Each structure stands twice: as structure tokens, then as C-alpha cells.
Amino acid sequence: MSIRKSLQSKISSSFVSPFTIAQSVSEKVNSFSSNRNRGKRQFEKSSKIYPPAPQRRDQDRESEAVWGFADTAFMFDSDGNVVLSGERYPLCATPLPNLIPWVEDTLSLRFDPNNKLIASYPPPVTKSLLSEASLHDALRSCGELEIWVDDVMRLRHSHGHSQEEMYALRFRPSVETPFRVCDAVLKPQNAEQIFQIVQTARVHGWKLVPYGGGTNVSQALSFEGVTQPVVVLSMASMNRVLWIDEENQLACIQAGAVGRDIQKCLAQFGYTIGHEPDSIEFSTMGGWVATNASGMKKNKYGNIEDIVRDIEVVTHEGCFSHRMVAPRESTGVDLRKLFFGSEGNFGVITEATVRISKLPEVQEYGSILFKTFSEGARFMRELAYRNIAPASVRLVDNQQFRFSMALKPKKSLLPTQKSKLEKLFVTKLKGFDPETMCAATLVFEGSAQEVKSLSNAVYACAAEFGGMAGGAENGAKGYQLTYGIAYIRDFVMPYKILAESFETSVPWNRVEELCRRTKERLHREHRERGLPGTPFVTCRVTQVYPTGACIYFYLAFSFDGVDNPTQIFSELEHAAREEILACGGSLSHHHGVGRLRAPFMKEAIGVEGVQIKGRIKDALDPEGVFGVGTQGLL
Fold first, then answer.
1. Per-residue pLDDT averaged across 70-74, rounded?
2. List of residues 6+ apart from 596 with CB closer than 8 A
3. Can you give the residue ranges of every domain in the chain?
4. Is residue 98 classed as helix, strand or coil in its secondary structure?
5. Full-model pTM
6. How many CB atoms lie within 10 A of CB 320?
7. Is 385 an annotated catalytic residue?
8. How far apart are CA 511 and CA 507, in angstroms?
9. To the nearest whole number, what is the mean pLDDT of the chain?
10. Looking at domain 1-61+141-163+179-359+605-634, which of 3.30.2130.30, 2.40.110.10, 3.30.465.10, 3.40.30.10 is its CATH number?
């Protein structure tokens, strides 16, 4: 008999009172707490305890139907130019007169500000399968615990930021089937409380899903088709940097800590974690581990699996963590690796012990222009071969390069003349063709001597491939644009333009072929469907490795007059993924699988790989408490 059936039979028995059951759970929790603390005491004994990271607000945005901060959004000013509101980014508060003309030229359309869809957020949502009274009764042994069953909070914790979800939230007609949301949101305070919730979920047949920043683009928070009650665990209260061990250069960080808060806290003491994904302002430590994330400065600091030295996970039966953190071990299979990329399927990640680094003495930006994408790609490969890649280096193709030019702000007469002279020098005297040229942005970090030596080596390498230095200012702007452009997708969506990103990793000998074939496939799929205008298909080479690189794609097209546009977009992205896999690319480099890419799992890791994952899932979660089908695991 399963544990779940056994406990259910106990509950129905007239010989066992609810108090006895609560006492049984309490005994399990006491044992859980005792084992958890005994395993950690030896290491933490020598650690210094520091103030926590700033308390995270529950909502940084006015509504979960758009990306970013509530005070930041693209809009039209009184002169008809696009402007980014707020003061958070260098791009803010400056008219961008070239953006709309670029959109019209690139997508082959006439941009009409009056031809706009009217958002109807929030959409109708499904009725909760759980009542507040039943939840309080079931969770009475958990102590003080915030519980929400209202529609607003359930909706906020029931989606990520894929284009399908954003479109459905803002423009889905109210006559359609209500948006399937979770049935309750709980806000635990500690691992012991989470363990109690897990035991309760086992008894009542709930599905448990951790929620960090909600930034995923893989539909990992999609609950469509899930018939069991879904309870989301908001990790917002578990948001602290618990301690910093300066001697061993380690820190312990709770899973709900947001990237920007982690940065601020560690910087107070002269350290950095070095992990900077594009979503760092909103994503969390737990989410980084659960998706096996990568950041813009991976070349210097490593990916998340290189940075994290240990994790604490609340599982089906107890708490998984190491007794201590050693620099390396040879103790058989490293079970910690099971939880990297697990996407909530095996348990709830509550803490991570991470390697920290001293803040760099010097940070220097740079940029390099190349005549063709091929020359730039060979330069990126050579950086990896010679092991001289700076903290961050990203090569954008010609389409993305021209997009960055369209985001240049309006300038006074003197800078405009200067820009014209610079353009003349580059195109006429140096022979760079505006229709083929591309650019790489660079970030160097380290001591003054390290930065000087490395930058000399990088620019010398670039010259071997016809590269020309483009200046530090352009490098800084290109790097910072990462945060600003994230708002553009939600700005153009009401004007009937869909856009989304997707990524892969691929061996060096297939990089150019994969980029070319994926672009060709998307243009072909767009034509065959008779879609309006021309699609915007672009890519950049980001993280580099000795054996290959990450390729990051963007796709956008007009859906004016198109029925069910998000379904069409999904079909195009599906076709692109087929082409990527056919070219030897991976299913994902750092976005994870979620429910969006689950149909490709057999092709990505093989039938035997899928079966092994399923058997691990059955062993670690025999009652199917964790997850809602990400990676196809139920």
C-alpha cells in the first residue's frame, strides 16, 4: 500500500483522531528539523552571519500581464516618438525617432498607432478547487502561514512570460474557456513549514509547484489540463542571504532571493556571485538551479552549476543536503546534480550554498565590428580555443545590429555630424557593408593588469578576422540594452506584432549552418502560411565554450488579420526547434524545457533517457506531488 493510501485510510479510521495525525506530522517535522540542523552545524560554526538581503516586494509590476517594473514601459510621446518611461535604464526618457521606421521597414508593414488591440486584463479564471476553510483546516499544523485563494493572487502565480501566456492574459476573449490557474497560493517561511505542506499534499492529493520570479518562457507554470488541485508555493519570504563565509568564499542564499537583491547584499561586503542572466532583476536563486541557468558573465564566473556548491531540497520524505561543502568529492554519483534543471519535479529547492568572488577592481566595456557574421563567429570560436574570452562577449548578426541602431536616441546636431563622419569612415574607408556587418559587445572584469592583458589579446585576435574596435561606449550601450529591450515585446503586442526568443547550444562546426538553416526555415514557414509582411529573424552568439556556443534567436512578425496568432507563432517556433535539432543543436541551453518543449524530449535525450528520468521521478516522488508535467514528467 502506498504512503498516500495508508495515510488516507488512517484519516478515515474512527480510531485515529485528527489530533493524532497532526501529532504524527509534527513528529516527522521535528525529525526533519533535527536532521537538517545536525547536518549543517559543523560547517556553519565557522561562518560569519550577516544582515539579510532587502525584503522583496510581492509585486514589482502593477500587473503580471507585462514584463518589468511598474514605472517602466515603452510608449508614444507627444511628438509621436517612442520613449521608454522611468529612470532605471540609460535608454529611458529619450525619444527614439528611428524605432518605428525600422519596424515598418523590417516587417514590411505600415505601423498604425490607432490600429491597436485593447487589453482586457485580468481574464476570467477557473474557480478554485479548494476552499479557504478547507485549506486552513488541512494546514492547521503548519503554524503561521499566508494562504490566498482570491482570483488576483492565483492568477499572478499561474503563468510565466511566454508570448502565448502574455497574449492570452491580455487579449483572450472573455467568452473563451477561463484561464486555468492554481487553486491556492501558500507563502511558507522556512523549510520545516514546506515539509509540513508536502506531507499535507500527499494526504490530500495536491500538486505542489514552487514559484520564484515567474520569469520563465517555457510554460513551466501552465496548468492547462491539470485536474488535481494545484497549490503554488510562493518563495517570496525565503529571500535572504543567510551567511557569508569570507575565508572559504562561500555564501548561503535562500531560494526566493531575487538576483538584484543578491547582488546588492553581496556587494555591501565586497563580493559578487557573478551570475547575471538577462532576467536577473526578477528571477530567483531557486529558479536558477531549477532551470540550470546561465548568465551573461558565464565566461568568467561559470554557469549556475559551477557556482552552486550545495543545495538544500525538501523532498517527499525529508531534506536533501550535504553535511558539509568540500571543494570536490569522489563519493559516487553526485545526487545534487539531479536537482539542477529539475524544474520542480523532484522537490522544493530552499537554499543554495554558492561560491562567491571578490568584486572586480576594474570593469571595462568594449565593442568590435566585423564585416560579416562568419568572420565574427570564427573570432568567437578562436576566443574559446585560446581561452581568452572576456567575462561577457556577445556577437549579434546584421539584423540585430541594425535593430540596435534603431534604438539610438535622438541627438543634437553636433553628435549627429560626428555619427555621420564615423559611419562614413567605417563604410567608405574601411569597406564595411551596412547590409552585412555585425558587432560584438565585450565586458572585461578583473584587476587592472588582468583587464589590460586580456583586452589586448582579444582585440589582437579580432584583428586577425578583420575586426575593428567600436569603442567602449557602444559596448556599454549594447550590454545595457539587454534590460531595456525586454519591454519591447509587450509594447508591440497590442499593435498586432508577436515576438519571442528561444535558444540552443551547438558545436562550433555547426554554428553558421544552424543559424542559416533556422532563419531559412522560419522565412519559409512564414511564406507558406501567407502571413502578412516579412518576419524579423535574428540571432546572436553568446556564451562560448571550447566545444561550441549558445545561439540566441529572436522571432517577430505581424499578425494583423491573422486568426489565432499565438498558435501560428507556436507552429513557427516548433518548426525552428525541429531545424535546430536536425542541425545538432540542443533542446535548450538555459531556458529549460517546461511544458513548451516537452514534446521534443525523446528526440533530445533519447527514449532511454526519457525512461530513466521517469523512473527517477517515480522513485523520488511516487505519489506525483511535485510538478505539473514539465519535461513530460507527471
1. 92
2. 162, 217, 218, 219
3. 1-61+141-163+179-359+605-634, 362-582
4. coil
5. 0.91
6. 22
7. no
8. 7
9. 89
10. 3.30.465.10
